[in-house]
Specification:
alpha/beta, Spore Coat Polysaccharide Biosynthesis Protein SpsA, Chain A, nine-stranded parallel sheet, 41 strands, elongated, binds uridine-diphosphate-N-acetylglucosamine, binds calcium ion
Amino acid sequence: MPFTTLILAAGAGTRMKSERAKVAHTLLGKPMIRWVVDAAAAATGLAAGSVAAANPSDQRTDATQIITVIGHQREQVEPLVPDTTLVVQEERLGTGHAVMMARSKLLELPADASLVVLNGDTPLITAATISALAAARAEDAAAATVLTFKLDDPTNYGRIIRDPADKVLRIVEEKDATPEERACKECNSGAYCFELSALLAQLDKLSNDNAQGEYYLTDVIGLYVAEGLTVTAHIVDAEEVQGINSRVQLALASKALQRRINKEHMEAGVTMLDPELVWVEPGVEIENDVELLPLTFLGGATRVGSGSVLGPNTRVTDSTIGRGCHIVETEIVGALLEDNVACGPRAYLRPGTVMKAGSKAGTHVEIKNSTVGSNSKVPHLSYIGDATLGSDVNIGAGTITCNYDGISKNPTTIGDRAFIGSATMLIAPVTVGADAVTGAGSAIAKDVPESALALERNKQTTIENWKERQ
Ligand code: UD1
Ligand code: CA
């Protein structure tokens, strides 16, 4: 059943002790608020990120839109949720007040609309749970359904107070609770599904006469019950609805997301020697029979082809790795690797690097904005920048492209099957033809024709019996 989502994200997040807005902190590379928005978008059947309309007014009556309440450090939060309708809460007077600020947007919705309210600081909530919450309210024919969970130590959460027949009566905040109420282990997750018209009718009745002097959204539950409306609870596993208020909770939630993501990849056929030590950001695509060794980090828009082995100690960001690649102790950013490429140990592939099939970037090799042709090897201690290497090229140990003359970057071109002697300095712009050879230790500043040998070094001086003469 369709529903509108309202995400509360205007709070200050003081306990993060940060210059950054709480909901802008990232978990596996994705901002906290995005986890919530994407889950809500998936739950309403909209592809993540596709909610945006060219003209925001076009989507205002869309019964499945997402509305975000922003306030504190809103300049940081706003750019993260361009696909949602924004409402600004200038003064943070509580979660109930935050919903009041959205009133004019909510009044544009159909009177019988269903409204899911989520906290912006619960990034572990899943689309399945949000859908189940909305379905539970429909099934219970309730005016409101609260998403709840049980904790042995419920400190800081609002508690669900039920009557002897187990019916939900109200929610009491920790700071307002009596010792008996505090003993209750059923907690409010901060997620609810409301029948919109009933909610709008109760909002005006909220007061801030409580321990925190805030307008609590939680109080509408007691008001509903006082009016004889049905309120139910939908209980879920605690992990999904943990709120993040501190860096410790941020780390724990990241850990939970890591496990969730890794489990999905393992179930899809990815091997992980120690999944606790592999970090894969959402959106990374991994084919089956990939092996990820400890301390491998895959981030951004990265894809890894079947049969590749990555790690240990490897980070790949915004890159495509083909099939059958072996990547050991390597940092790869913005690169494209075709099939059967070998990297490392300790290689660094920077943006614009293309490694054609069967090529190699070996130990202590840095490559930037360059194409290494198929089956070409850069095995040891090299810097290759702004270069185009043909196929079957061999680059001797310690060879460097001197691509920068202090003013501009210049290109180096090396033809098929060229053999570059060890420690050659290729002073760009320069071209080495196909099948050409450069002598070890040469500084090559002039183009080398096809099949030629280019040597640039002084004649060796040898003094016989040097030791005796000393
Ligand atoms: C809230 C609930 C509590 C629940 C807990 C779950 C209330 C009164 N309490 O408490 O019952 O157990 O969440 O995590 O609702 N926000 C605004 N504007 C405001 C205040 C808050 O937008 O004026 C937003 C915050 O950014 C946050 C969410 O609302 O995303 C919850 O606010 P927070 O202050 O963290 O509430 P809790 O004390 O955690
Ligand atoms: Ca909170």
